[in-house]
Each structure stands twice: as structure tokens, then as C-alpha cells.
Amino acid sequence: MDVKTLCLGLLSRGDYSGYEIRKQFEEGAFSHFQDAGFGSIYPALKRLTEEGLATCSAQAQESRPDKKVYRITPRGREALFEAVNEPPAPDKLRSDFMFVLYFADLVPPRQLDRLIAGRIAHHEEVIARLEAIDLSRRTSEEAFVIRYGIALHRAARDYFETHRHELVGDSIRSGATA
Amino acid sequence: MDVKTLCLGLLSRGDYSGYEIRKQFEEGAFSHFQDAGFGSIYPALKRLTEEGLATCSAQAQESRPDKKVYRITPRGREALFEAVNEPPAPDKLRSDFMFVLYFADLVPPRQLDRLIAGRIAHHEEVIARLEAIDLSRRTSEEAFVIRYGIALHRAARDYFETHRHELVGDSIRSGATA
DNA sequence: AGGTACATGTAAGCTGTTACATGATTTT
DNA sequence: AAAATCATGTAACAGCTTACATGTACCT
Q1: Proximity of residue A19 CB to strand C below 7 A
Q2: A-chain residue closest to B163, CA distance
Q3: pLDDT in tens, B40-98
Q4: CATH classification code of B3-84
Q5: φ/ψ (deg, to 5) at B54
Q6: pTM value?
Q7: What are the residue ranges spanned by the domains of chain A?
């Protein structure tokens, strides 16, 4: 799924500027399974407009660049319909963190401990962010996906809390603290 | 983490050919958090050799191309050490499947039901594959990562089994089957 | 005085994917 | 007879990331 389709999806639920779209990728309901930065969002919105899948209206603002608000067109909705009815490509996960853990014997115990603490904190953050979303204002599909995110991040957090001692516990207790 | 470093990691646990490395990405302990195809593995191994991080010995085989077996060098081990002691980049997950679910109202209920059934089956497959790994032959770090994979895929499977009715249950029961 | 949030965009570069090229052996 | 497995590699392409370019307003 390219960034173009991702943007189209967001626009199907409301009118947004590129800046707002990026914020949704960063903080919104999508944030736990998709990502995109300015460098891919702006060109994507441009192409969406060129292809007639969205329209753009520039809103003049004082002492700021024009805010360009995009709106999905009927043809854009068709394109989104077709995209979600295609068999989805397999998930792609790339976790440098897990790679590091796989070779955790090469990492000093202290650093490893900090790393895992940071990971747990990160999961807590994501959980808090997703829990803060008011589900009563969302479609049941959206709520399903958001709750999935919460469930998965909780599972990850719980795993680390329960098993972290298997990685760092012993090394910390023996001489490493000297 | 680029494919070069990923290959270096695998080579730190044994000598392998490009073909075998790909199999490990596909089926091995890594498979649930990293991925790479031939098109990136072969060039990566070539560069590893050029940079003196691995050596390559071609083993002649009858009626097959030479099998090129790579072995990590001491400098390769140093490079791996440095890589895993760098702060890891944040995880990157791209899930077209979750995107589709987010807009599941656009998908016919039957198709949605099949999609979710397939997803559950996929999680079962990954769980079975990871459970088949003999942990007694692995380092505790590797076992930790493998068990993490099992835990996460179980959580995902359980979520779908418990909540799938929220997405498709009602639509299936009402007129859609006509 | 400095950092963050608002606001958009381009260009170069890096990386990875897909398709192509080749060919024998083993399994179904 | 077809499909999968073994086995390596290149070239073109697509896509995303990073850095650059610009500037105001508000908060600390």
C-alpha cells in the first residue's frame, strides 16, 4: 500500500492538509501499523490531485503559508474501494530492536537493561495514546483496529515485563555492577 | 538495519550460502521481524566480502552452480558488535491488512470473513513454525526472541478469534447471504 | 534566546523489490 | 508432466528517507 492510498484512506474520513495527515500518521489510529513523513505525503497529495482522486483548496492564512486542504472526490472513493478489495500484501515488520536482542550477548548488561526499560516505556506510550482515542466517535471497524493495537502492545509489554530477567537478570547480579 | 548487517548477524552463528540465508529469513528464528529476498541478499554478501567482513569459499557441485559459502571474519564480528551497540532505529511495521480492516465497511462481508480466517491461519502457521524450533540448541537470547514471536502471534490470533464477530458477525447474519 | 508548533515543498540519494536469465534434480 | 527445490546473480525501477529551503508565532 503506497502512501497515496494511505492518504486517500484518511481523506475518506475527512478533509485534511498535508500537515494534519502527517500528524495522524504520527499520533492517530493508524500510527501503530503505518508510517509516512512529509517527504512522501506532500508528493502523494500532489499526485492524488493530478489524478483527480482529490481536490485541493488553498486557504490563505496570515503570516503562514497557505494551508492546502484536500478533499476526496467520488473517483477517489472508487479508487479506495478498489484498493481495499484487493488481497492485501503480507505485513512487513522490520525491528532493529529484536535484532539487537537476538545478539544481546554482545551488549553490556546495563545498556541492555536500559534498552528494555525504554521499550516497555514505549509500549506504555502507544497504549496510552490509543486508549485516549474516543471510540464512541469511531466506526466499529476503526475501533476494532485500535483495540487490536492496544492488545498487541499490551502483549509485548507484558512479555518484556515477565521475561526480561531471562536476558539481563543474571548478568546484572553477577560482577557486572562492579 | 540494512540487509548487510542482517546477513552478518546470521553469519556470526554459522557459515552459510546466500540461498541458506534467505531460507533463514523465510523460515528461521528471524522470520517474524525481518525480511530479505535474493535481490538484496546476494549484493549484500558481495559487499560484505569486498569490505573484508566475510570471506567466501566456492564449493564446486555437480550439475549445479557453485555453492558459495560465506564465513564471518574477525573484522566482521567487530562490525556486528558495533551495530548492535548502536541505539536501534524504531520498528517499522507496514500492515496493508490492518489498513483494509480499518475500511472494512467497504469490503463484502463474505470476503472479509475469508480474509480474517486466512489471517488466523497465518498466525497459526507462524506459531507452529516458531514452536518447532528446538530451543535447547539456542542461546538464551535467541530463545527469548523466538518466544516473543510466539507470544505476539498468539495475542494477534486470540484477538481475531475473540473479536472477529464485531466486524463480520452481524452483516453475515442479516441479508448478506441472500 | 532557544525550542516547538505551524505550514509546504524539492532534490538527491539510498535501499530494496521485481523481473529477468539459467539450469539440474527431486517430488507430486 | 508440472511444480518445487536447489543455486546464483544483474538491471531497471519504484519508493521512501534525509537534508535542504523558508518563515511566523508562541511558550519557556
Answers
A1: yes
A2: A144
A3: 999 999 999 999 999 999 877 666 677 899 999 999 999 999 999 999 999 999 999 99
A4: 1.10.10.10
A5: -150, 155
A6: 0.92
A7: 3-84, 96-173
